[in-house]
UniProtKB/TrEMBL annotation:
Keywords: Signal. Transmembrane segments: none annotated. The keyword Ubl conjugation does not apply. Residues 22-56 are annotated as: Disordered. The keyword Signal applies. This is DUF3558 domain-containing protein. Residues 1-27 form the signal peptide. Residues 35-49 have a biased composition (Polar residues). Pfam families: DUF3558.
């Protein structure tokens, strides 16, 4: 039996943090990044007729340290007992943090993105199959890259042109469905932490 199964049972408390509405940590320094499919700039397009986004509040992540987006207790809940490792997500040119697990079966990274919003998941800039979610009351998009069963992406709309991006990666044959169940739970914990700061 997979050792991750008891973890998923322990995460049931966080399951209420997200709902479907339609639609890295690194092992061996593996840091898969999203791949742009267009040459367009990374800024979110603006339009005077664009409807306002329905979110509980605006969270400016420009000054948020991604390594501080999870408390020690939250990290322990996800088995991320290793020291968080800060870095820069080259795709977004934004700060990121890798969270590692002792068992190295899977890991995750959190990026505080200030260069684009979640429309990047749906406007053709990112080659993923998007699925609309709600995480902690915030609009979100879950993305699976076709043909890649080792990673699941999730972006949470926290402010205009900004998002919290969570990437969950497998290092020991963790199924993609499991990675994509974990992503909203991790994102829900992140949103809970930064919304209360």
């Amino acid at each position: 039996m997979r050792r991750a199964v008891p973890l998923l049972a322990a995460l049931v408390l966080l399951a209420g943090c997200s709902r479907i509405t339609g639609g890295s940590a690194t092992a061996g320094d593996r840091e898969p990044e999203p791949t742009r499919t267009t040459g367009a700039g990374s800024s979110e397009p603006t339009s005077p007729s664009k409807a306002p986004v329905d979110r509980p509040k605006k969270i400016d992540v420009a000054a948020v340290d991604p390594c501080a987006t999870l408390t020690e207790a939250q990290r322990a809940l996800f088995g991320a007992t290793g020291e968080p490792r800060p870095g820069t997500a080259t795709t977004y040119q934004s700060p990121t943090c890798n969270f590692s697990r002792e068992d190295h079966r899977w890991g995750f990274r959190v990026t505080t993105v200030t260069t684009t919003g979640i429309s990047w998941y749906t406007d053709g800039s990112f080659a993923v199959e998007p699925e609309h979610l709600e995480v902690g009351g915030f609009p979100a998009v879950l993305g699976r890259a076709p043909g890649d069963d080792e990673v699941c992406f999730l972006g949470v709309d926290v402010a205009d042109g900004q998002m919290v991006d969570v990437q969950v990666s497998s290092f020991e044959d963790v199924p993609a469905d499991e990675l994509c169940r974990l992503a909203p739970q991790i994102a829900g914990a992140v949103v809970e932490t930064i919304a209360n700061k």
